Amino acid sequence: MKFYLRRIGFYAVTLWATISLNFLLPRMMPGNPADIMIAKLQRAGGDVSESTIRNIKLLLGGDDQPLWQQYLGYWGRMFQGDLGVSVTKYPAPVTELIAEALPWTLILVGVATVISFVLGVALGAWAGWKRGTWVDNIIPATTVLQSIPYFWLALILVAVFAVGLGWFPIFGGYDVFDFPDGPVPTWSFISDAAAHAVLPALTIVLSSVGGWLFGMRNMMVSTLAEDYITTAEAKGLRPRRILTTYAARNAAIPSIAGFSITLGFVVAGSIVMEQVFTYPGVGKLMFQAVLNSDYALMQGVFLVITIAVLAANFFMDLVYGFIDPRARQNV
């Protein structure tokens, strides 16, 4: 119980610090981000209401209120779900834009990351168990794929499978001509979206599976040299049980710790991949926000990513404490 209370306290303080930093960053920037954003809104959409100007100044600074009052107001608006108005797609609220992009990223990057992790750990455990055999030959191949620049691998897949063979769509999250009104909950739309997601997901899997495989293989080799593995073999236990219960379970602990960090950054999406495929996820949204100096949208995306990373790490800390009793004792 002491372990879990300490982890809850640590993540609560970290969450407060990151949200406070998100509040302070625009106010620490040179110039006045609020005035810049209001000017852009006026150029893009004509007249801007006084309430919108007031909200922007409260969000990004430039208001006459003392800093502590702005800070308390920021927390209040955040709990109400008010993250401001976007310049990129004025007058759409930031929460609405993030809510539209988030499911695309969670489904695509989340599923691809889980597949990459499971495949890499499973193949790494097998390669470590069969060390010194032909199975080790898969490591150089996956390492080469990992070393290829991310965007270059995506362009190769597009050139071969989309342009050359015509098996998959070239870009986008779905066919905008077949579905002009946007996403609809039908099987035809789901199948079309799945076809558009194959190449982006394949890019993520091919680029990241090598790291999981290589790390798990090395941990398996180290774990198989431990005394408790020798004891299990001396007891006459079946090789399959030694592999799964004794070797792979303990060797996977560092990979699980790394997976928690990777899982948290799933919400951030993959900016390069989403740009190459014009995929409507959070990564593309962040790129547009930076390109257009959309401070409110940048703040909102940063906040969502931060909360997601902390939540994923907190969850994996709890899982880590469950599967490894030593973590609960070292408090």
From TrEMBL:
GO cellular component: plasma membrane
Alphabetical list of PROSITE patterns matching this protein: ABC_TM1
Biological-process GO terms, alphabetical: transmembrane transport
Membrane topology, as annotated: Multi-pass membrane protein
Key words, A-Z: Membrane, Transmembrane, Transmembrane helix, Transport
Cell location: Cell membrane; Membrane
Top-level division of the source organism's lineage: Bacteria
InterPro entries cross-referenced by the UniProt entry: MetI-like, MetI-like_sf
Domain ABC transmembrane type-1 residues, every copy: 102-316
Keyword Transport on entry: yes
Transmembrane domains' residue ranges: 7-25, 104-129, 150-174, 194-214, 251-277, 297-323
Gene3D superfamilies: MetI-like
Signal peptide span: none
Protein family membership: Belongs to the binding-protein-dependent transport system permease family.
Name of the protein in its database record: Peptide ABC transporter permease
UniProt source species: Microbacterium aerolatum
Lineage of producing organism: Bacteria, Bacillati, Actinomycetota, Actinomycetes, Micrococcales
